[in-house]
Design a protein that fits this description.
about 270 residues; mainly alpha; Potassium Channel Kv1.1, Chain A; three-stranded mixed β-sheet; two-stranded antiparallel ribbon; 5 strands; about 45% helix; elongated; disordered N terminus; disordered C terminus
Length: about 270
């Protein structure tokens, strides 16, 4: 699927492949990360957000004339080492193989910049100035890594998401539309969907133990969530009731262990070669 194309939110179709099974999900299996001594050839990635998905403050749509491409020059060998998508584009005999230039529509330049930084440093580094909140930025980074077939970046992004959630205690507002983005841009049974449904179900259970006012606030928020997400949350809540950690109608903690977090990882292949 092209990076700029959204997935159809068909939740009852078993034909939609899981995120980790759509294509080979690992970096190149042979050899180590390219050295800068050898990685001298550069490729150009033109990134621009779609006007239909871009909004100003207050929900006003951005005029197409206001959307401009932002070029990124990246070492070809390093980018292709971590991304089978870019490897196929620049080494697969397509037009991009000749021009060494690729357009990525419907892509946030800030998010793509984080992806490029990760290919060089293996660290998810958030910008100090940005227009999106951390959760939405990281959510879009996970989706972009999914489209570019970089599972290690997806998992590193999830670690950042959980660290910020644990620190800030994220709870969506009634007008929050980030989860609509999540369900529009991920596949059925996506690990990221499962993670957020699990975290939200925990929050709902704890809110229920804190009184009517807190429960009412959570219910108001829930009304604005995508219907498929509500179904996923209910499934997670049923699983919680059957979990030994569930005591007297409440969970012990909102914290999640590293081992538990790994249940939401995208599977890696041949990690020992990296």
């Amino acid at each position: 699927m092209p990076p700029g194309q959204k997935r159809k939110a068909s939740e009852d179709s078993s034909s939609v492949p899981e995120a980790s099974k759509r294509a080979p999900r690992s970096e190149k299996e042979e050899g180590s990360r390219p050295s800068f001594l050898d990685a001298t050839e550069m490729v150009k990635i033109n990134v621009f957000e779609s006007p239909s998905n871009d909004k100003k403050e207050g929900g006003e749509k951005v005029n197409s004339a206001e959307v401009t491409k932002k070029p990124f020059l990246v070492h070809k060998a390093i980018l292709c080492h971590y991304s089978p998508f870019f490897d196929a584009a620049f080494n697969g005999g397509f037009q991009e193989d000749t021009t060494q230039e690729l357009d990525l529509p419907d892509t946030d330049p800030i998010v793509f910049g984080i992806l490029v930084e990760w290919t060089y440093s293996q660290r998810v580094i958030m910008p100090t100035t940005r227009t999106c909140n951390d959760r939405f930025t990281l959510m879009k980074l996970w989706v972009l890594a999914d489209r570019c077939l970089i599972p290690r970046l997806q998992n590193d992004t999830l670690v950042c998401l959980e660290a910020r959630r644990a620190t800030l205690g994220w709870m969506p507002s009634p007008c929050d539309d980030t989860f609509a983005y999540l369900y529009d841009n991920t596949a059925y049974r996506s690990p990221l969907r499962h993670y957020f449904a699990h975290r939200f179900s925990n929050a709902m259970v704890i809110a229920g133990s804190q009184g009517l006012e807190r429960t009412s606030k959570v219910s108001e928020i829930s009304e604005n969530l995508p219907q498929p997400m509500l179904a996923d949350i209910i499934t997670c809540m049923v699983e919680q009731v059957r979990n030994p950690e569930f005591e007297g109608g409440r969970v012990r903690s909102l914290k999640i262990s590293e081992e538990e977090l790994q249940k939401f990882y995208v599977p890696l292949k041949d990690m020992e070669s990296l």
